[in-house]
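Fold sample X.
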Amino acid sequence: MLGPITTLVGAAAAASYLGYATMAPGSQLYGRTLTHGSDPGQIALTYDDGPNDPHTMHLLDVLARHEAKATFFLIGQYVKKRPDIARAIHAAGHVIGNHTYTHPNLALVSASKLKQELTDCRKALEDGLGISTSLFRPPFGGRRPNVLRTARAMGMEPIMWSVTAFDWSARSSEFIVDKVTKEVERRSGKQSEIVLLHDGGHLGFGADRGFTVEATKTLLNKYSGMKFAAIPDLTH
């Protein structure tokens, strides 16, 4: 009797691990992704789900005051809605990445849907800004081998993160800062962290990200001795 039970337990554990690997930002099981840099003197702030009015513009003001560069992973349908905000991000010298057109979990979509999402976001960026991007971040972190292969075949590098700020559910800016600080300090300055933040929300345009703006101010001051770098400028 133990044989079948052991087999079932082993299969369940394997399935659980494979499922974890589709979403865990640090997992490399389904292919290499960038999760951090090698220089502990650098830190990369990244913002997902924009452009978003008015919080993206507020973030640009905060970043400019500290002469900090960041990376914004934009949703194509929002770029189409507000290309002026996307252009402001680019004009400020920040780096823009592809975050799909409608923000589905790519681990759950068909191959044709996957390619359409990346293509439509790319077109929105090209139409609105006149640029293409070499960076890609899967919504929710969801990915399978085909997701990474398709992105790379389209000339894009998959970018994940090492620190999750949980700002989408935060009830204060202090909550966000505490989450980031604990993760950064837990790694004891052994690498450059890529921090996941949000200037918008995938459920709808106009999400309130005031706490993220305030938390960004605090983080820029707290780590003022470090270089805030865009993803392409991280030392690997």
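Fold sample Y, listed below.
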Amino acid sequence: MITRTQIQSIEPLIRPYIRRTPVLEVDGADFGLDSITIIFKLELLQHGGSFKARGAFTNLLTREIPKVGIVAASGGNHGVAVAYAAMKLRVPTTIFVPSVASQSKVDRIRRCGAELVISGERYADALEASQKWTERTGALPIHAYEANETLLGQGTLGLELEEQSPRLDSLLVAVGGGGLIGGIAAWYENRTRILSVEPELAPTLQRALQAGRPVDAPAGGIAADSLAPRQVGQIMFPIAQKYVQDALLVTDEQIREAQKKLWEIMRIAAEPGGAAAFAALLSRRYQPKPGERVGVVVCGGNTEIGLGS
């Protein structure tokens, strides 16, 4: 498993290329959640609109890149991040996305100059197409979550958050393939209660934890472009088994309500996947104790103006 020491060694390497995103501490009463403090980690303000830039730069700065360049499959955010990192480091890039990818993410990938290929309906389809591309061309695959480099980069969010808000009782993190929560959980090592949040229509990690191994799960719902792989990652899974203390599910309606409240009360425009972690708190799927300091990672903001998907 990846370690805190490894994450610490990666952070200075990628620091010149990523933003130190802010935290915002608010009284839970602002959202009708009395007697708690909410600490929002605003990672939607990261380059590319999500936490994914951390893992993308880690991959590109620590691996040997062939002349033909790199390839990535993505529901959207990973593709944006890889395209952005490749643009900054002048690396040829091909990104495969499924048809479910939101237009805002597709547009951002194109603006970064990557070659974009739309393949299939879901992330698994785009991943298969990207693997065939690798076999044909020799391009280096940059995986969204099934790579140590990716998890190490995402783990720097945990390092950064602990520096900014060292007294967290719990931390809610949305899960797709699990790269983000894997990196964060490896950083905290049970020193903070880590809880995963997934849509009910894409319960990838919850089913894996129940089965004792990654297994296929449904891949639907409002956040399908960011939180709906076929299986959670093999690399992150033992980390989750060891350090993730509960796996929570939220409905599409609860995610929409979380988006709405974040916008109405704080003017934070989160995409569905970015609002999922807060949905668990707002809906009371997670019920903190009085006085608890609850961290919430707002992990993505690649959404159409007006809070479309």
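Sample Y note: Residues 52-141 form a domain with the Rossmann fold fold (CATH 3.40.50.1100).
Also: The radius of gyration is 18 Å.
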